[in-house]
Amino acid sequence: GDQLVPSGMPLLECDALAVSAVQYVARTSAWLVLDNGADDERFAADPHLQGGRAVSILCTPIAHKGRRRGTVYLENHLVAGCFTPARLETVRLLASQAAISIENAALIENLESKVQQRTVELREARDRAESASQAKGEFLTSMSHELRTPLNAILGYTQLMLDEEDSSCDHGGSLQTIRRSGRHLLGLINDVLDMSRIEAGRLE
Model pTM greater than 0.70? Predict the structure, then answer.
């Protein structure tokens, strides 16, 4: 026959197939071949078979590595015993290939899910890194400013003292050392500030 189970219909409510045969295969994971389903006592109470519509029935699990993924159900209500060994072998191969395809599809779906999850994690990590970099840049800029202000005052007063230095006083060498050290320190602070500007993309 070529009847199909309507999409979304619960199996127990379907009268287009022998539900008891499908349940038997699902429970036992065994192949079921009935030359005339209405004559088999195991399924005699099935409403579908009582109507005398199903004659030959083939029902087999779709399984891969012991994991059942579905069931193949075929029936022919015109010819008894139509499922010959050659046809059984064809269905066996198709069921095996279907099981592998379903398994591969599940693996691909799982892989895609992991890739999406990893992409989200990487995006969040990138955002956190950018936020931390911005905070670091703001901190360096602020600290550079805070250090440069008093350091410029020290350098300014040192220059004034050097300009007013009495030649009889021997503090000149100490003032020169203070000025050299202050300028060196100011250069280091400017370098730190330049580094923060480079990281922020405001300086090449």
Answer: no
